[in-house]
Amino acid sequence: MRRIPIRIFIFIFISLIIAISSIGTGFILMREAEYALLQEKQRKLFALARVLDSVLVGTFDEILDSEGLAGASREARIGALNRRLRAVTDRVALSEPGVGVGYYSRSLDAIITYGPSETLGHKVGQSISADHKGRFVMATGMPRVQTAGLVRGEIMNCMYPINRDGEVIGYIWSNELMDDINDQIRKMLYRFYVAIAAGIVFSFAGTAFIAHAVGLRIREIKRGIKAIETDVTHRIAPMGGELGEIAVSVNEFAEVLESRRRLEEQMQRTDRLAALGEIAAGVAHEIRNPMTSIKGFVQLIETGMEPEDVRRKYTSIVIAEVDRLNKMVRELLYYARPSDSLKLAVDINGILADTLLLVNLNATRQHVQIVMDYGEDLPRVVVDQEQIKQVFLNILINAVQAVENGGHIRVESMALDRGVAVVVEDDGKGIEPAQVARLFDPFFTTRDNGTGLGLAVVQKIIDLHHGVVEVESRLGEGTRFRVVLPAKPEGDGDGN
């Protein structure tokens, strides 16, 4: 069964959480907002009712007495009160479109005014039903809100008692059609829905981005682990967050594997080279004596020849080839059994300066410029000067031979935390990647006339000094050797 990719799982999981929480929160907020809107409507309507209460000076009977209609018929009294109060209710109603306001007389049991009178004036004189909440207001003297179908339709009706000297003489109402209120609620809910939908969409987009980013990092880590399976030198690129910590741990594990592999290779190389060295030493001893005899006999023959003898050309070739073989024999013997070392605490810059004196002549002949950059205040290193000089000599000779006429070689020494490093870098033709790994193998050479022992000797001497030699090369750009030697421990003498 195919597993769901983690980025899809993260996206679905977080999206569900966001959707559920957004919808739940939105529902609660909408209910709260709807309730708050209704409360605000009630406060507004009661405020209008209190305005009408403050405008009504005295009682309905006092108004009728002032007009001499105290004993008039019910219709006449209702008409007189309507004429006196109609303008007030109309002004209040017109100030708030959609609102209806009016007075109700308890003694006359009738609607006195209903503004705006142009549309609702025909309701004047009518009585409220027996179960109307207005009767509760007049009976108890307590404000009341009623939402129901009343005189002007489905409305929210806020009723406020008219209290004079402890007696409720009627009530004032202020109402608004529920259609208007519901329309406002619908508009508010629509805005809420749009906001919630937009929030969910943006949240999904953000979640998708995060899931994609996490998925990319996880895939990068997986690819890195796969690459490390075949190449322990591979490292996962740095990344932030907790996944970055995983990448760091994987890289640290790869470093452990690389160190272990390097140690195993070094042990295998040491065993292999030790056996090879013993064989080479025996062969070298057997070859050196015949070579010495051959050279001596050829030189003896040469003494009996005339200066213009054409055979001198061939005897010179024989002597040159014998010298080359003798050089190889010396390197074989040195590689197999290095001379006893005399290690002293020395300045590495001094060894470099002495070595450059030996190389400068050849470099000048080939128009190669050597640039030195000596580090300052370098710690002293405990080494065999002649052996380390041989190391730098072999590396520099290779560099001079690698660069073209007019090329450059840069030699730099620098301090490290617990030692010194010497870098020899040239701008020659470089070495093929497949050959770089074999540079320190005995008898491996990239030149037709090379012995293949120079860098093998370098590796062996550096190993004897518990150092490290590294090489980097790019075709067409040049080669860089880096030799690291441990510093003299504090408190040690000048040598051992």
In words, what does this structure look like?
The protein is an alpha+beta fold. The chain folds into three domains: 6-184, 2-Layer Sandwich (Beta-Lactamase), CATH 3.30.450; 250-337, Helix Hairpins, CATH 1.10.287; 341-496, Heat Shock Protein 90 (2-Layer Sandwich), CATH 3.30.565. The protein has twelve helices and twelve strands. The chain has helices spanning 6-55, 60-66, 74-95, 117-120, 133-140, 178-230, 241-303, 312-336, 348-365, 385-402, 433-436, 454-464, and strands at 99-105, 110-115, 144-150, 153-164, 167-177, 343-346, 369-373, 381-384, 408-416, 419-426, 468-474, 478-486. Strands 2-1-5-4-3 form a five-stranded antiparallel beta sheet. A five-stranded mixed beta sheet has the order 7-9-10-12-11, covered by helices on one side. A hairpin with a 3-residue loop joins β11 and β12 (478-486). α1 (6-55) runs antiparallel to α6. It is rod-shaped. The two termini are 68 Å apart. The model has no long low-confidence stretch (mean pLDDT 82).
List the helices and strands and how they pair.
Layout: H1 6-55, H2 60-66, H3 74-95, E1 99-105, E2 110-115, H4 117-120, H5 133-140, E3 144-150, E4 153-164, E5 167-177, H6 178-230, H7 241-303, H8 312-336, E6 343-346, H9 348-365, E7 369-373, E8 381-384, H10 385-402, E9 408-416, E10 419-426, H11 433-436, H12 454-464, E11 468-474, E12 478-486
Parallel strand pairs: 7-9
Antiparallel strand pairs: 1-2, 1-5, 3-4, 4-5, 6-8, 9-10, 10-12, 11-12
Enzyme class: transferase
Pfam families: HATPase_c, HisKA
Main location: membrane
